[in-house]
């Protein structure tokens, strides 16, 4: 496996994006999600859009991340709004001309034919190596636990605290990070917040909402909806983790 970045290989953008997703793509319909377009990555953060290639030069995985200043003035702690606010911090730093000191991973996507083969760990290692190469002191991740989709009603603090008999975290995506040395910092209760009309939610997920709580494909929390107000609100918690940097 060879890893390149979008800055050096912009021709691979479409193929990398065509690898699909790991569920929950509706989160990109929110205000923060709409900020991280392919065009903006090409223009601003091309070095932090990593693409893994097989021996034939075909993309088999991608890892997206954004550089940001943390800790910094007004940013003493990782935000409770997790993924959403990390993207906003990165955009603010570009507008303010503030130099980044950390890298925040946003997603890791593996080709469907290779999922379950252990490629996620090398992609996280590649992000960590890129952070170190660019003098960034932290790799942080607002981790979206994969298995939580099966338990959307379970509170995240309870879910994230589960461990296997061997002592490792029970959720496999949290466990992948832990095996690479990452430590849990805290649960971020409002990591992704998204609202829309009933029509919006149908377009995003294919689900016809009903009054009350709704479970949606890829959701790790329910959508709370009101037919009278034509309004559906989704708030998901994530888990902040920090990877140690090599000396």
UniProtKB/TrEMBL annotation:
InterPro entries in the record: Acyl_CoA_acyltransferase (IPR016181)
SUPFAM superfamilies with a match to the protein in the record: Acyl-CoA N-acyltransferases (Nat)
Tree of life domain: Bacteria
Protein name: Long-chain-fatty-acid--CoA ligase
Species of origin: Amycolatopsis xylanica
């Amino acid at each position: 496996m060879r890893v390149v970045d979008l800055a050096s290989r912009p021709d691979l953008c479409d193929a990398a994006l065509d690898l699909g997703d790991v569920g929950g793509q509706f989160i990109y319909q929110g205000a923060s999600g709409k900020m991280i377009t392919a065009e903006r990555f090409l223009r601003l953060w091309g070095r932090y859009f990593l693409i893994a290639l097989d021996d034939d030069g075909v993309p088999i995985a991608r890892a997206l991340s954004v550089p940001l200043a943390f800790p910094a003035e007004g940013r003493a702690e990782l935000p409770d709004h997790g993924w959403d606010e990390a993207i906003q911090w990165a955009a603010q730093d570009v507008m303010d001309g503030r130099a980044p000191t950390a890298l925040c991973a946003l997603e890791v996507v593996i080709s469907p034919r290779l999922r379950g083969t252990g490629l996620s760990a090398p992609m996280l290692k590649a992000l960590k190596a890129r952070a170190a190469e660019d003098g960034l002191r932290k790799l942080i991740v607002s981790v979206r636990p994969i298995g939580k989709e099966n338990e959307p009603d379970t509170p995240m603090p309870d879910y994230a605290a589960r461990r296997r008999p061997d002592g490792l975290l029970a959720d496999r995506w949290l466990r992948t990070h832990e095996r690479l040395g990452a430590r849990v910092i805290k649960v971020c209760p409002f990591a992704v917040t998204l609202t829309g009309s009933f029509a919006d939610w149908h377009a995003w997920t294919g689900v016809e909402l009903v009054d009350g709580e709704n479970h949606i494909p890829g959701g790790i929390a329910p959508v709370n909806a009101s037919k009278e107000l034509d309004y559906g609100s989704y708030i998901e918690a994530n888990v902040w983790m920090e990877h140690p940097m090599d000396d």
